[in-house]
Design a protein that fits this description.
Layout (H helix, E strand, L loop, with lengths): L1 H34 L6 H10 L2 H17 L3 H11 L6 H17 L3 H8 L8 H15 L2 H14 L3 H14 L13 H12 L2 H14 L4 H4 L3 H6 L9 E6 L6 H18 L4 E6 L4 H10 L4 E3 L4 H10 L6 E3 L11 E3 L4 H14 L5 E6 L2 H16 L7 E5 L2 H11 L2 H15 L15 E5 L2 H14 L9 E3 L10 H5 L4 E5 L1 H4 L3 H13 L5 H16 L3 H4 L7 E2 L4 E4 L5 E4 L1 E6 L2 E5 L17
Parallel strand pairs: 1-2, 1-3, 3-4, 4-5, 6-7, 6-8, 8-9, 9-10
Antiparallel strand pairs: 10-14, 11-12, 12-13, 14-15
Helix pairs in contact: 2-3, 3-4, 3-5, 4-5, 5-6, 5-7, 6-7, 7-8, 8-9, 10-11, 14-25, 17-18, 19-21
Length: about 600
């Protein structure tokens, strides 16, 4: 009898152990499931919820809410949040609900609520996602230092080695935008490494990094060196002895050539450049001018300015030294060729970044049909899509001004609003005191064109949109802004933001100094020549750093024509300041480039 009881007790004990293990497995399964990306549609999870009972039913509903969030169906996400609030008991379910609530709040731009949901740490499996969202929230709020702290925490909380490497590269790209005085001592390894990369290249940088790694052994960047830093150890800055500057100094484009020349010379004198500058007139024959410069020992070329002359030099294959062409005439496969132009397309790409930064969903591009407007529109769309927006961008280019006014009214759906008012009046049999309203989905306007055209569009939009409606953010490029010296004209552009090079709007530093100098020396110059002067000034300052700037993630050069970088093809691009017109005054602020969405090994973006 005793043996039977003992055996029964053993079986009972085994059953309890198995039951406990099963309960643990089920709990762990839900923890993993709720902290991993969702792969099914919301309807599939709701089907599972209908077949389940108790906690499982609620958990499948929570998964459906996460699937709604993945498809940006925030109205249904909010329905799920309301239905599940206070009903979930498992800690992992409560953690997932907090994350979902934070995502929903961020989508609705309720950043205070999102911050409250993300304030406190979560269980281990959910902590990386909390830090991802904290990083995104800080980016939306424009708090670079908080974004860096969240990313550093993410690297520490995650076991994903691929994620750690990507986070390190992301931190490195953000570091130049941060205020070093707001970072605590834990950021010393990063800031010291940044200084090393400003001062050294190639073997000298490699040796300095070896010493730095010993000093900061165990730190995140010492264990996972940023990829751009590794690339910089393979690069040597250009050190020319004689630089040839080829520009049209006579003929139809002499004024433009001389403006660029003056900018180059001003930068040469400011920087104490040791190389000799050989200036040659390329108006008649750029190839002959280059051959003359080469005979004098030129080991770097800047210019020409005119597209046909650059193409002629390219076809001749006569240029076998590092070359900065002063126009965007790209040809692939030449690692020492660079292309610098004041391209309107760069400002349009910057506008797309601003739309992303403002969390816009439905940008609208409007202007007259022309080649420059079309190129700008295409640049906006291409940059917009790089941030994961696959839906078509609403772009309207009109043949003439008459069509432009009618088109603005149509695209903002004012006539549809008037028709709805008339229908209601007919049904009620009386006149309504109602005002036509503009469509609500457009949340970012980019106006393409010159100042007069943009002013016309701004006037059409102002009288079209109801004064009681929320104004739509309106932007344009440096082509479209009014005369900044005319306060009366500024009032007509009230609420408009435009991109402009620091040379014209900065109130301090080299940009202001150069503008003041040029105002004295060339008081009659039009702004077009001043822009070319700024381009020449920045071109000269770029020469030593062009190779390093080609490294992805390299810190841009802060020039008087903008913040300047170089892509992998050697094409130089600029990011300028934003200027907003308010009640006849201007407010200047820097442009922040939002980080491109970069998934980790599980497909989650940070």
């Amino acid at each position: 009898m005793t043996r039977i009881l003992t055996r029964s007790a053993g079986l009972l004990c085994l059953a309890l152990v198995l039951s406990s293990c099963a309960g643990t497995a089920q709990k762990d399964n839900w923890s993993e499931r709720l902290s991993s990306p969702v792969y099914l549609k919301a309807s599939d999870y709701l089907d599972k919820a209908r077949q389940a009972e108790g906690n499982a039913k609620l958990l499948w509903q929570l998964q459906a809410g996460r699937a709604y969030a993945q498809s940006n169906d925030w109205a249904r996400v909010d329905d799920v949040l309301k239905a599940l609030g206070g009903r979930l008991t498992l800690p992992e379910a409560q953690a997932a609900l907090r994350l979902l609530s934070a995502e929903s709040a961020m989508a609705r731009e309720d950043y205070d609520l999102a911050a409250r949901q993300l304030e406190n740490p979560l269980p281990r499996d959910f902590e990386p996602q909390r830090l991802r969202l904290s990083s995104r929230l800080a980016e939306l709020s424009g708090d670079v230092e908080a974004q860096l702290q969240a990313l550093a925490g993410l690297a520490q909380a995650s076991d994903d080695q691929v994620l750690k490497l990507r986070v390190v590269d992301r931190i490195w790209s953000l570091l130049p935008q941060a205020d070093a005085d707001k970072l605590d001592t834990s950021w010393a390894p990063w800031l010291t490494l940044k200084e090393l990369t400003r001062e050294k290249r190639g073997q000298a940088l490699k040796e300095a990094i070896a010493s730095w790694q010993q000093t900061y052994a165990g730190s995140l960047p010492a264990r996972y060196l940023p990829q751009p830093v590794e690339q910089l150890t393979q690069i040597t800055d250009y050190q020319p002895t004689k630089v040839a500057l080829l520009l049209p100094l006579t003929g139809n484009f002499a004024a433009q050539g001389k403006a660029v020349r003056d900018g180059v010379v001003a930068a040469w004198l400011d920087s104490g450049q040791q190389a000799q500058l050989i200036i040659l007139d390329s108006a008649n024959d750029a190839l002959a001018a280059w051959q003359a410069a080469k005979a004098q020992g030129a080991d770097m070329l800047v210019g020409p300015l005119l597209r046909p002359q650059i193409e002629a030099l390219q076809q001749s294959s006569a240029v076998d030294v590092p070359w900065l062409a002063l126009n965007r005439v790209f040809r692939p496969g030449f690692a020492d060729n660079f292309y610098f132009a004041l391209a309107p397309e760069d400002e349009a790409a910057q506008a797309a970044e601003e739309a992303v930064q403002r969390n816009a969903r439905h940008p609208l591009l409007i202007g007259l049909d022309g080649s420059t407007n079309a190129r700008q529109a295409q640049a906006f769309i291409e940059r917009w899509r790089q941030y994961g927006h696959s839906e078509p961008v609403d772009m309207r280019l009109f043949a003439n001004r008459q069509q432009l006014e009618a088109g603005i009214r149509d695209v903002l759906k004012i006539e549809d609003s008037k028709a709805r008012i008339r229908q209601v009046q007919d049904i009620l049999g009386r006149r309504l005191e109602a005002e036509a309203r503009s469509r609500r989905d457009v949340d970012f306007l980019y106006l393409l064109g010159e100042s007069e055209e943009v002013g016309l569009m701004k006037a059409f939009i102002d009288v079209t949109i109801s004064p009681f409606a929320e104004p739509i953010a309106a932007y344009t490029s440096s082509r479209g802004h009014p005369d900044l010296e005319n306060p009366a004209g500024l009032r007509d552009f009230n609420g408009l933001s435009f991109s402009e090079m620091p040379y014209f709007v900065s109130q301090q530093g080299p940009a202001l100094a150069m503008r003041q100098l040029l105002t004295k020396q060339r008081p009659q110059w039009p702004s077009a020549l001043e822009r070319l002067f700024a381009m020449g000034y920045d071109a000269a300052r770029l020469l030593p750093r062009m190779a390093a700037l080609r490294v992805e993630g390299a810190e841009p050069v802060q020039g008087i024509s903008g913040s300047i970088g170089v892509d992998s093809n050697g094409v130089i691009y600029r990011r300028t300041n934003w200027v907003t017109i308010k009640k006849g005054n201007t407010e200047v602020h820097d442009h922040a480039i939002p980080s491109l969405p970069e998934p980790d090994s599980q497909g989650a973006a940070f």
